[in-house]
Amino acid sequence: MSIPKEPRQLMINIMYLVLTAMLALNVSAEIFNAFKVLDQGLVKSNRALDFSNEPMQNAIHEAAKAKPSLQTYAERVDPIRKEAEAISDFISAIKDSIINTSGGYVMDPVTEQLTKELKGEKDTDVTTRILVDDPMKNGNKDGRGEELKSRLLQFKSEISKYIDEADRDRFQTEIAVNVDDETWREAGKSSWSHMNFYQMPVQAVIPIFNKYINDVKSTEAAALNYLGKKVGIGKDDVVLSEFTVVAAPEKSYIIKGEPYKADVFLTATAGNDSGTKIELSVNDRPLRLDAKGRGQYLVNTSETGRKTYTASAKVYNPITEKTTSYTKEFSYEVGERSVAISPTKMNVFYIGVDNPVEISAAGTNSNTLTASMSGAGGGKIRRAADGTFVVTVNTPTRRNDYAQVNVKAEGLDVSKKFRVKRIPDPIPQLSNSKGGVMSSGEFKLQNGLFAVLENFDFKADCSIEEFRLVRVPKRTDAKVSVNAGGTFSAKSKSLVEQAIPSDKFYFEDIKCKCPGDSRLRDLGLMVFKIK
After folding, report:
1. Cα distance between residue 41 and residue 77, in whole Å
2. Same domain for 242 and 209
3. What distance lies between CA 390 and its chain's CA centroid?
4. What is the per-residue pLDDT for 507?
5. In terms of C-beta density within 10 A (0-12 exposed, 13-18 middle, 19 or more buried), how is residue 163 classed?
């Protein structure tokens, strides 16, 4: 894949790659906000390109009037613009379809006006369904992503036709529109669209589409600039009118002791070889610029907290012979590494159920984080699909014994102790009652006993394994049935159906079994008086 030579385009590509990589980590609100900021910058950059491309078209037509031989270049302007408009409209249509299908925009309840916030910003199903060509789903070939890839390649080919054959190869390697059609195969993905869009949140896909539109407009600008040079418009004649200072840090949150490193440069620049002169500084300290007009700000960090700096740019316009200054403030956060290990439901681990645990490591890459179990309890830990962890244990801990969760990450080695308990004893019930008075009609409708775990936050089912049913009629000998399982046996059901007012029924020696139990639990006695 070719590397763009314009600082603005290189900045956009770098930010896009960085944010896409961040998406592979735990997706936080800050990352979604970063995608929103990137998207706003792309939209603004697209407007700036439209603003600069429009006068260039008129300038080419005017300059071509000088010689009849130059008319061939002027005649290429309108077809180039139409090609760019067509694919831009196509990309926008897919983008609008994704937004609308995911619920559109959020309405402000006060002004009753639509905001720029997306209802389905975290929806991954819509993007996968609309964009991904998934051969696993009955050979579905309706994914718009492959159509997008085809249209981008077609646009690149069509635009290149308006470049002289001698310059065509170089032009194709330098323009922004490009499709990497090899990496997805090396990565073992089913298609280009599967690699780029599968399970991507809507908020992450929107700036990708705006980037493609930006690539199209940049390619259009490159083609117009080429035609401009052919008809005699000098490089100094094309000076972009909108500028903004940009700082692209390697990290926005760094650890004490690490250096803060950021590229500071001017977007929408015409380049150092265009006659436009650029000076960059941070806190009034000049920066040395590279060939692409970028300066690097490097400062050591020794204290934690929020840090700010002011970046300034001075731009000399060779056409107006005026110098314009631009200033903007940036900030970054310096923190220290730390780890938090928190059970999401209880202060202990329970045998027989999955115990979810949240492990957060501030200031370190979560992909480098590993967790293990040691100590008592026979525990094991695994990472769940949502990034949290699940602990399973099989032996209760004794006094002063603990199960231990161990977390290791870059520069960190932390442990936390937990007690291990059996699931609490459930409560036996008949209907919705734990004993007492019950009408004969309701009593005869019951099919057996069941166990209920009250005030227990985990999903666990305990089963009644056996009990002894005793019917004590008034002035008559008691009748007994030993019942296996929670459901009434035929003999027990017969005793239940004989119930009449003044009878007493005893449910004795109730035994149950809960997940993780190696032996039965005794749940005691229930007594019912029939009315």
Report:
1. 27
2. no
3. 21
4. 96
5. buried
